[in-house]
Amino acid sequence: MLEKLKEEVFLANLELPKQGLIKYTWGNVSAVDRSQKLFIIKPSGVDYDAMTADDMVVCDFEGNVIEGKLNPSSDTPTHAVLYKHFEDIGGIVHTHSQWATAWAQAGLDVPAMGTTHADTFYGPVPCARFLTSEEVERGYEKETGHVIVNTFAEHKLDPLEVPGVLLHGHAPFTWGKTADEAVMNAVVLDEVCKMNFYTRQLNSYAEELPQYILDKHYLRKHGKDAYYGQK
Amino acid sequence: MLEKLKEEVFLANLELPKQGLIKYTWGNVSAVDRSQKLFIIKPSGVDYDAMTADDMVVCDFEGNVIEGKLNPSSDTPTHAVLYKHFEDIGGIVHTHSQWATAWAQAGLDVPAMGTTHADTFYGPVPCARFLTSEEVERGYEKETGHVIVNTFAEHKLDPLEVPGVLLHGHAPFTWGKTADEAVMNAVVLDEVCKMNFYTRQLNSYAEELPQYILDKHYLRKHGKDAYYGQK
Amino acid sequence: MLEKLKEEVFLANLELPKQGLIKYTWGNVSAVDRSQKLFIIKPSGVDYDAMTADDMVVCDFEGNVIEGKLNPSSDTPTHAVLYKHFEDIGGIVHTHSQWATAWAQAGLDVPAMGTTHADTFYGPVPCARFLTSEEVERGYEKETGHVIVNTFAEHKLDPLEVPGVLLHGHAPFTWGKTADEAVMNAVVLDEVCKMNFYTRQLNSYAEELPQYILDKHYLRKHGKDAYYGQK
Amino acid sequence: MLEKLKEEVFLANLELPKQGLIKYTWGNVSAVDRSQKLFIIKPSGVDYDAMTADDMVVCDFEGNVIEGKLNPSSDTPTHAVLYKHFEDIGGIVHTHSQWATAWAQAGLDVPAMGTTHADTFYGPVPCARFLTSEEVERGYEKETGHVIVNTFAEHKLDPLEVPGVLLHGHAPFTWGKTADEAVMNAVVLDEVCKMNFYTRQLNSYAEELPQYILDKHYLRKHGKDAYYGQK
């Protein structure tokens, strides 16, 4: 079942430790098959050395396991909610990568301070609020998804233009058209959080990038007038 | 004598440089055999390249060498006191890992600022006081153990729920049910100290994690209602 | 056409990830043939693993492609302007290396705080201003080149004595007599930005290097009285 | 001539990039033969990949080349002065390692804030003053040696108890009984500078280590009552 997508998800999970985004098993990647309304996700707490593509778990958009002998990632209900509500995304990544996590713990949006940011994120990356105790009781992982979705609705953000979020006191989620793109966006978000940290320490009055430069950099890589790369 | 445990302790010691927790020989791991009231510990100041499982030293809970041709780690009396008083722990790690050591030198408890912390430590990791000059004279390494034990008694902490401590002006000790778990806890403590450092620099008013989220994350991985992993 | 220079440019591009200056394809190196008024540059957005010397693109000083089946780096017009105006330089590097980018985002010149700086840069490395919205509209990459050239004219700087610049809100450009030297200057600039960051955090009153020590270190490595190395 | 010592110096130089203390050729190691009053030092500006033990240069205590086909390190006169005045040292290391260099640029002594420091340095590591312009003119590298020697005399420091120094605006020198020990001391100094940086940022009121703990840690590793290791 969905063998090709399982392989993609498996390989994308292996990218996380290679890119220095995770230690041990502190992360997970998934990818969706939109035609079948199913997604593939990493099993929970399995050593990366022992894991194979066959260990990947197939779930539906309610987070139910459809196929797989192992428990899916404990964050599966969050992925399910995001696939349901963000209808154009194809892959999702969750890590506790250090720099994005530091900003998440600080409860701060990541401002667009440079073109490294603007090449991938079309504006600040929002930090979503703490869940309430009622939400935690009702279903921590599922409500985490709802808080993300509501944050994007409130800020009127397009999830493909701002393909990531921080969760206050927790860590980042990123996404993209594919699992691979979601991983790359996780790398960019962590790098941008690092650079912005040092920028702010150097100069607490440092300005955000002017809107017309943000536009220029984002749009030279994305959308119909893009001219970056070989397309 | 205790050949299997020697191998475990040997391999766990090799993990320290692999995980970036130590330089040269600045660390030590031990593990206990509760039935015999003996523990195995690394020899003192031996190059990791030259060391073998056979070089591990067997000690009793008074810190006496029971078997072994080399001197045990100079921190052996600290390990002995911890095994005697923390009756459920199986392995102990001491390193001068950089981030935990920075917090130890700063004399600060490590606050629970995020879920990375909450997944392993059920609340702040305490920083124990400097030894007095009388304690240093009486027996530096043994009294270090007593200061740790007293710190946990005063804070009414369960050593398995908060499996680590900082020593003011010195560095961390961590422990766990096994030597391997103690190493993993040393990795987590250093990572958390790093993330919390950056969090505080970004936002000196950053809040600690709400108690109900701390509960949720710790208890989804530990105790009878845990649902993380494949158990 | 210019096969030897293509090979040099290809190898110099591969140095960027090796030296930790870039992630993915976020950088580019070029080198010039002054006799033909042509330069060779990396293609845009091509994976470093898949790239070959043959993929390098030949351009003239207006940024037109003279030979090559792939699109050149989107920053090609900046390189073209620099080769046209800085008549003694032989190679150019652009990266988003983290430390230099942090200073660029902070909008700060890099002061000469130590001899590591003085061995390569004969005085502060300037941070050029944001482009105006008119300049961005007129041609972002070409105008970036003009802003660099004007910054050097205003500060009366010799591009070979100060072989690099920061662009506010963006990242560094460095150059040198060859592509290899330009890469080495990119490494030095990033290292100096890192050291100066920590220096300033340690002591916000830290002094710049006295002029006579700056002279001594720069001139023992550069110019007719140099005595460093084997020349 | 002194083939065994050349091999030692060669290998100790190779340790510098392995330990992350230098980039390119920014460092040098030497070792002395006290009976012949000669020392061996790395040649100036030679690539580490191309260098062999045979390329090492033999010098006397005035810095004259006694044997060797290459120019010695440009810092040779500094080494010569140190061997002449610090009569018990056997090896010297100079690097621009990032953390020690940051403290040197900040012009600050490195305080003894923890036991990592106390295990190697018996008290603060001093930062020597800038050279005057007269000293630079008279002979920059030789006068650098004199400033180090005078700093130790003024502070009444034993060079084997405090085996290193920072030079304001420049970088560290370390030394030891052998070239290998001097390299290890360079690693410790950089690590301590890193830890102390983070300690100070966490808590600007952080105390230095009490004298009796400094004594305890230094003396358990050094001197007649040492009990660390296998001696």
Summary?
Chains A, B, C, D: Its EC number is 5.1.3.4. The structure is a homotetramer of 231-residue chains. With 231 residues, chain A is α+β, with helices and mostly antiparallel strands.
Q: Tell me how many strands of chain A there are.
A: 8
Which chain pair has the greatest contact?
A-B, 32 and 27 residues
Strand order of the largest sheet of chain A: 4-3-2-1-5-8-7-6
For the largest beta-sheet of chain A, the strand count, sense and barrel status come to: 8 strands, mixed
Number of domains of chain A: 1
What does it look like?
- The structure is a homotetramer of 231-residue chains.
- The first copy, chain A, has 231 residues and is α+β, with helices and mostly antiparallel strands.
- Chain A has one domain (3-221): L-fuculose-1-phosphate Aldolase (3-Layer(aba) Sandwich).
- Chain A is built from seven helices and eight strands, in the order αββββαβααβαββαα.
- Chain A has helices at residues 3-18, 76-85, 98-106, 115-118, 133-154, 179-202, 211-221; strands at residues 27-33, 38-41, 57-60, 65-67, 91-95, 127-128, 164-167, 172-176.
- Chain A has an eight-stranded mixed β-sheet with strand order 4-3-2-1-5-8-7-6, sandwiched between helices.
- In chain A, a hairpin with a 4-residue loop joins β7 and β8 (172-176).
- In chain A, α2 runs parallel beside α5 and α3 (98-106) packs across α6 (179-202).
- The first copy, chain A, starts with a helix and ends in a 10-residue tail after the last helix.
- The model of chain A has no long low-confidence stretch (mean pLDDT 96).
- Chains in contact: A-B, A-C, B-D, C-D.
- Chains A and B meet through α3, α5 and α6 of A and α6 and α7 of B.
